Amino acid sequence: MAFTVQTDTTALEFILALNKGMSKQKAKDLLKNSHFTCDGVAAKLLPSTPLAQGQSIEIFKGRAVTVANVHPSRSGPVVIKHEDESLLIAVKPAGVLSCNDRTQPGVAFTKVLQDYLTTRERRKIYVWIVHRLDREVEGLLLFAKTEEIQQRLKDDWKQTKKQYLALVEGKPNPPSGTIESWLRDTPSHKVEVHKVEVEGSVFAKTEYKTLKSIGAYRLLEITLHTGKKNQIRAHLESIGCPIVGDRKYGADDSVVRQVRLVASSLELTNPVTGKIVAVRYEPKASFYAPSKHQDERYK
Predict the structure, then answer these.
(1) Residue 111: CB partners within 8 Å, gap ≥ 6?
(2) Which of 29, 31, 56, 148 matches a 20 to 30 Å C-alpha distance to 44?
(3) Across-strand partners of 49?
(4) Strand pairing partners for 180?
(5) How far from each other are the two terminal CA atoms of the chain, in whole angstroms?
(6) Which is more confident, 179 or 101?
(7) Which residues are designated catalytic?
(8) CA pair distance 196, 201, nearest whole angstrom
(9) Residue 184, number of CB atoms within 10 A of its CB
(10) Given pLDDT bands bounded at 50, 70 and 90, which one contains residue 38?
(11) Do residues 5 and 55 lie in contact, with contact meaning Cβ atoms separated by under 8 Å?
(12) Are 201 and 194 in contact (CB under 8 A)?
């Protein structure tokens, strides 16, 4: 249930006001043992955490938090979709690196997330990234709260169900299918697709399903069976259906567009609790309506 903060206060006073007659110690225990969202975003509330009039606070007693669909923005770049004691799933915006890369300039999302958590918790916080998304790609990114949990999640990565949404040019034939090929990186950092194994190549498998037509484009649901560099982008170009905005992999380049590829779904087993964690993310409406006449500003 969501509650509206009636006046500027602290988290402790807010809990006491909601629960008439509750002792301060019980209120502190509730803050310690519950999860919260603040205006739809997962938040850690300490007794002294300030709350502003009009904020919406939702309380999840003793449960992990999976929040409703919220989108990152320049003023609020961190959106946490799920958080529990072991792991965290956040939405990486398009145009941002997943983690530090010596070959590419820019602040990485991992650093942005750690700074956000450090401010929230009022102590230095570290997270360990489990996988990466291309800089151009928006969507769900998984982090562990300890190095040990990171390794356990990586060890189980093949059992993690990973799905994407892709808005593509052309019309896949057949409408649904599986692409299997060998991928090889090149000095230009564009991945080549080969029908047979060649020196330096790795096997990749991508499953796709056409969901619907949107104007001149097709919306595809993508399931990854392997996770290689630029795999989805290279595979879709190889069947004549480049992702809208992906000029590197054959898309129309008459204007600059955000690449219409989003990591939309993660389903995994929490390695500590054994519980299933299933999170979905729906992109903004603008994802489905690429600009036709002017450059898009998304970085």
Answers:
(1) 100
(2) 148
(3) none
(4) 205
(5) 36
(6) 179
(7) 134
(8) 9
(9) 17
(10) confident
(11) yes
(12) yes
Structure tokens at 194: 């080969």
**Spatial distance between the Cα atoms of 229 and 224, rounded to a whole number of angstroms:** 12
The chain-wide mean pLDDT, for the chain, equals: 90
Q: Is 269 exposed, middle or buried (0-12, 13-18, 19+ CB in 10 A)?
A: middle
Please state, as a whole number, how many other Cβ atoms lie within 10 Å of the Cβ of residue 200: 11
Spatial CA neighbour of 120 closest among 38, 57, 56: 38
- DSSP one-letter code for 243: B
Report cis status (omega within 30 of 0) of the bond before 283: no
Structure-token pair, residue 283: 């992109």
pLDDT at 205 over 90: yes
Please give the model's pTM, rounded to 2 decimal places: 0.76
pLDDT in tens, 77-123: 788 999 888 999 999 999 899 987 766 667 899 999 999 888 888 88
pLDDT at position 44 is 77
C-alpha 296 chain-centroid distance: 21
Residue 173 tokens, joined:
């034939």
Strand extents, DSSP E, 44-188:
50-51, 56-61, 65-66, 80-83, 87-92, 128-129, 138-144, 161-168, 176-184
190 phi, psi to nearest 5 deg = -100, 135
Domains, the chain:
1-63 (3.10.290.10), 64-288 (3.30.2350.10)
